[in-house]
Amino acid sequence: MIARVWYGRTPARLAEAYLDYLDRTGVAACRATPGNLGVHVLHRVRDDEAEFVFISYW
Questions:
Q1: Which residue among 2, 15, 19, 53 is the one 20 to 30 A from 31 at the CA level?
Q2: φ and ψ of 24, to 5 deg
Q3: What dihedral do alpha carbons 28, 29, 33, 38 form, nearest 10°?
Q4: Where are the alpha helices (DSSP H) in 1-58?
């Protein structure tokens, strides 16, 4: 198994919008790609910044 990991950051006020964007684009595209074994999106908001970790399994 291969796990590909991407990291991203946004201002905290945009965290929900970015999560929605990831679901509609990256998560949907990964799940629709043959060979994909799963996707996880982790996030946390700290002070005025949101951090994201996108993990796809192949």
A1: 15
A2: -70, -25
A3: -50
A4: 15-22, 28-32
Residue found by looking up tokens 């796990």 in the block? 3
SS3 12: helix
- Number of domains comprising the chain: 1
Find the angle CA(26)-CA(27)-CA(29) to the nearest 5 degrees: 65
Residue type, 18: Y
pTM, rounded to two decimals: 0.87
Question: What are 48-58's pLDDT values in tens digits?
Answer: 999 999 999 99
Pairing relationship of beta strands 38-46 and 49-57 according to DSSP bridges = antiparallel
- Domain coverage including residue 50: 3-57
Q: Write out pLDDT tens, residues 6-41.
A: 999 999 999 999 999 999 999 999 999 999 999 999
